[in-house]
Amino acid sequence: MIKAVFFDMDGVIFNSMPRHAKAWEMAMHKYGFNFNAYDAYLNEGRTGASVINECCENTYHRQATQQEIEQIYHAKTEAFNSFGMPEPIEGISDVLHFLKEHGIQIWIVTGSGQHSLMERLDKHFPAIFSRERMITAYDVKIGKPDKEPYYKALLKSGVEAEEAIVVENAPLGVKSGKEAGLFTIGVNTGILDPKVLKEAGADLVLPDMKQLLEYLRDLKI
Ligand code: MG
Prior knowledge:
By secondary structure, the chain is of the alpha/beta class. The chain has helices at residues 17-30, 37-42, 48-60, 66-82, 92-101, 117-124, 148-157, 171-179, 194-199, 209-218, and strands at 4-7, 105-109, 134-135, 164-168, 183-187, 204-206. It folds into two domains: 4-15 and 87-218, Rossmann fold (3-Layer(aba) Sandwich), CATH 3.40.50; 17-82, DNA polymerase, domain 1. It has ten helices and six strands; from the N terminus they run βαααααβαβαβαβαβα. Helix 8 links the parallel strand 4 and strand 5 (183-187). Helix 3 (48-60) crosses helix 4 (66-82) and helix 5 (92-101) runs parallel beside helix 10 (209-218). Bound molecules: magnesium ion.
């Protein structure tokens, strides 16, 4: 019996990952760091500073300076903003409406800290989401891949762990869902080899939201 579904946002609700990946690639190259779009997908969910630091260690075998972190992250943010707002992931709207019709709690669990998040969600999915059912960057101290964000969502939702499902697209997000003790579905909406999600611990890896809808229908919820 499923009572709640916890959705990640980037790459699950909105098709924002191609823009993030491109922006990371541009910013890193500008400062002479080796980093490509695939690396961006692998690192999705990490803080900007930690991504830059790890990349600097891989490229130059040293820690990044504070100035490098600030400059690269600024360049990445500027590039990302210049690309405009991403559209929803194909098929996600049908999944959300199916859950809503069946009275299942719909949650957002994201590391994003955009202030305009609720407005964007409401614009694309009217009456689906609520502020009370949201865990964002402002609600956590550690973030993914720690269990914290999904565990907090579980506690706030009031449902049992066996009654909840996590939907993620990123390996670090999958780890977070599993650490929280939840059944975690990896939907591979990006360019990663699907086995990366399986290796991160996903209970199930699906190629798209159409397959997720089929899966939820088969649960007879
Ligand atoms: Mg994601």
